[in-house]
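Bench notes, afternoon.
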Amino acid sequence: IYREVYRDKYLAANLFTFIPWKQLRISFGNSIVYSDGNLHPVYLIPFMFFNAADAVRTNYVDFAGSNSQLFFTISSRQIRHLHLYLSFFVDEWKTSRLLDPDLNNFTSFKGGARLDGFPVANLALTAEYTRTQPMTYDHYLATTTFSSNDYSLGHYLRENSEELWIGLDWKPLRGVILAGSFTFARHGDNVPYRLDAGYSVTAVPFLKNITWENREISLSARYEYASNGYFYLRYSYADKRGDLSRQPGFLAGKTGTLEAGINLGF
């Protein structure tokens, strides 16, 4: 009789934030996913560079090591009414790949801007773009992928994908928020991260084949009747095409969805 035995899996991370000037925050940190053992005390050191510690701990043997990541964020509110932000996630990086257009570093980034209260008071416009290269969040060791129970801990679209999101918020009255947004998202081939599959994992083209695509328009209204308590109403029109494993079957194709609810306490 076949029996499934689960392995222990751990994630350690740290983050440092610096404020060199007023309204400017620069953060950086690193994380590591390790498994097939017990909780390791070296990864509990808050200022540790995990990749170097793992290399020493495993005697520089790749297949005995773990999966480490780096991340950076910048948030600037130095221009009045304008918030600029950028986040950059590095799963695997080599400078030699930067000079070759056919090779990829395994990275993901999100850049955005929010204009609030200008030129119209109580009106805010936000735009964000996210791009994730192939193989990001994955790993050749199945027990050290950047996921938990196959649920990605990175961006919801996972690797080999991009998303553009534009939102408009208006507060005509105290406690009332009217909002609209547009989402355009695409996902490419799901290529396994295998070192024995006969192809280079660093040369998988970005979005060569579109396997899933979503265009969605959303309108919503929210009324906050008390602190941390509000009613909301939302309508979305979406056109989702491609791989049905990325959403329930009843949400595939052209759909209209109406939501209503109440929130209490948070």
